[in-house]
Design a protein that fits this description.
Elements (H helix, E strand, L loop, with lengths): L1 E3 L2 H12 L6 H22 L6 E6 L3 H15 L3 E6 L7 H9 L3 E3 L2 H10 L2 E5 L14 H5 L5 E5 L21 E5 L4 H4 L3 H5 L1 E5 L10 E3 L2 H7 L14 E5 L6 H11 L6 E5 L3 H7 L4 E3 L11 E4 L7 H10 L4 E3 L1 H10 L11 E3 L3 H12 L16 H6 L1 H12 L2 E4 L5 E3 L5 E3 L12 H14 L4 H19 L9 H6 L1 H13 L4
Parallel strand pairs: 2-3, 2-5, 3-4, 5-6, 6-7, 7-8, 10-11, 10-13, 11-12, 13-14, 14-15, 15-16
Antiparallel strand pairs: 1-9, 16-17, 17-18
This protein binds ligand NPW, adenosine-5'-diphosphate (ADP) and potassium ion (K).
The site of potassium ion has 11 residues, from strand 5 and strand 6.
């Protein structure tokens, strides 16, 4: 599991540790780890550190200090290091002295700095770290636009990325590798910040940290959460997932949601809706009923809404009336937004909402207006989907709080937020998943995990993980387009992948 902490949590842990250690110890630990990664990267690119061209972009804080000390260490190994000082009067004095003593040169003119930057084998971005506010300032912006021949290594956080949220206000410096200290930061795991961070490496510096703010599961964690039948299991004990999906207009959504549900670990899939005939023709193993959830047999969880069209209103009402976990997706969410959070108020079993940002905008507007169905006030501008996508962590949290439900917010980084405050972010996605119907597969899969007894937080985060992995496996060649049905078919490979990696020694 990758754990990420907020800046204030890092600062508190740093203060507690610094009180027990000689001054400068933590910066030395950070710089040693940073220099070691840079030396590995240079050796991989050029065969050796000696003679390579390194540029340190140094801002006014300790982030610049880390970068200057690491630059000094590389200079001592024979690298030709220039330090570009973005705030010359406030550069980290001891770091700068170390760099100079190691033979590094200092650049004050932007033209020279930019030329050095563009032809460097390696650039250390020490402009700003966890102390940063807002995007890059004007003096640093040309570096974000400049061409580059070598690798950019961000020190702790890519400059311009908000460490706590991953939000980017204006320009930020894109890195190939980020070396972070003590713990991951949420902004390194959540887009858009994550897309600026490149490969993220953690250097331990001995911080004692509280519970994480955000976590990202890895193979071993997911393997431990997969429902696996035991000797005592039968199909009912494994859980039956009910899928209320599809409509005359969107029959395909029914097939895709059932395809996902069949591969999520529940013992049986019960489909209700207008596409019963198509479903059973394609998936003879599914149990089918026409009509709505109320008339179907017992299930351990409902999935309601994919392609629900005109039947979504009734299906949602009937599913929410059942005392089992309910996953609401697509047209079910549009209907829920119309009703507002009050529609969930009487429920005792948990609810999982799986919006994309467009649906999230409708849900938030519904929460703020008390549900448009109730004729609530309204008047405030509804949030725009792209603004919500740029602030994914806050959006998922706001929705979870407003609806008192677990929220899986889909998109370039899928974020799962529990109403209790826990947040998981998904590391496995690929943008090829942005294909029609892949969300239906995800809904079926997550519903199946709910029926198999997983909590909404676990069901949602495991489903997103397997779904993202399956999309990679489904591609005929790495990086090729995939269809939603291919993603569903590749889910078994994703399960195997996770389980076999977890079974490896040392996993
Ligand atoms: N915590 C730990 O455990 C450890 C932390 N360590 C390291 O310390 C780093 C944090 O250092 P920090 O606190 O000095 O802050 P830092 O990120 O250098 O920035 C603050 C300075 O930048 C300025 N500034 C602000 N916004 C800006 C912007 N957008 N663009 C440009 N400048 C901007 C602001 O000045 P202002 O101009 O606003 O007065 C201020 O002077 C951390 O990321 C890690 O690398 C390790 O050494 C060891 C253990
Ligand atoms: N840029 C992206 N990067 C990674 N995954 C994405 C991106 N955009 C969308 N996705 C994923 O693709 C799926 C699309 O779901 P959804 O929007 O519900 O589509 P549909 O309604 O067509 O099924 C979700 O799993 C979502 O997280
Ligand atoms: K930085």
């Amino acid at each position: 599991m990758r754990s990420a902490h907020r800046v204030d949590q890092v600062r508190a842990a740093e203060a507690a540790l610094m009180a027990r250690l000689p001054g400068g110890t933590l910066m030395q630990r950070a710089a040693v780890g940073l220099a070691a990664t840079c030396a590995r990267l240079l050796t991989r690119r050029r065969g050796r550190v000696y003679g390579s061209r390194v540029v340190v972009l140094a801002g006014s804080g300790d982030n610049g200090g880390d970068a200057l000390y690491a630059g000094a260490a590389l200079a001592r190994r024979g690298a030709r290091v220039s330090a570009v000082l973005l705030a010359p009067a406030r550069a980290h004095a001891a770091g700068l002295a170390a760099l100079r003593a190691a033979g590094g040169r200092v650049v004050l003119e932007q033209e020279v700095g930019l030329a050095d930057f563009s032809r460097a084998d390696l650039v250390l971005d020490g402009i700003v770290g966890i102390g940063g506010k807002g995007g890059l300032r004007p003096e640093a912006q040309p570096y974000a636009r400049a061409g580059r021949a070598g690798v950019v290594v961000a020190v702790d956080v890519p400059s311009g990325v908000d460490a706590d949220t991953g939000e980017v206000a204006g320009a930020a410096l894109r890195a190939d590798v980020t070396v972070c200290f003590g713990t991951y930061k949420p902004g390194l795991l959540i887009d858009p910040g994550a897309s600026y961070a490149g490969a993220v490496q953690l250097v331990g510096i001995g911080l004692e940290l509280p519970a994480a703010e955000v976590v990202a599961l890895q193979h071993a964690d997911v393997a431990g959460l997969l429902p696996v039948p035991g000797a005592e299991s039968d199909k009912y004990r494994r859980g039956v997932v009910g899928v209320a999906a599809g409509s005359a207009r969107y029959p395909g959504a029914a097939l895709l949601a059932v395809a996902g549900a069949l591969r999520g670990g529940a013992g049986a899939v019960r489909y209700v809706g207008t596409a019963a005939e198509e479903v059973v023709r394609r998936f003879p193993e599914a149990l089918v009923t026409e009509g709505g959830p109320a008339g179907a047999g017992r299930v351990q969880a409902w999935v309601v809404g994919p392609g629900g069209g005109e039947g979504a209103e009734r299906a949602l009402a009937e599913a929410l009336a059942a005392d089992v976990p309910v996953l609401v997706d697509a047209d079910g969410l549009t209907e829920l937004a119309r009703l507002g959070p009050g529609a969930l108020a009487g429920r005792t079993a948990p609810t999982l909402l799986t919006p994309h940002t467009g649906e999230a905008a409708r849900l938030l507007a519904g929460a703020e207006n008390g549900g448009s169905a109730g004729g609530g006030g309204g008047g405030a501008r509804p949030p725009a989907a792209d603004e919500l996508a740029a602030a994914r962590l806050g959006t998922a949290r706001r929705l979870a709080a407003a609806y008192r439900a677990t929220v899986l917010l889909k998109g370039s980084t899928t974020v799962v937020a529990d109403p209790g405050g826990a947040v998981r972010v998904n590391p496995t996605g690929t943008s090829w998943l942005a294909t029609a119907g892949s969300g239906d597969v995800l809904a079926g899969l997550a519903g199946s995990l709910l029926a198999a007894g997983r909590s909404p937080l676990d069901a949602a985060s495991v489903a997103a993980y397997l779904h993202g992995l399956a999309a990679r496996h489904a591609a005929a060649t790495p990086g090729a387009p995939v269809t939603a049905l291919e993603v569903a078919a590749a889910l078994s490979t994703a399960w195997n992948d996770v389980r076999s990696a977890a079974a490896e020694p040392g996993a």
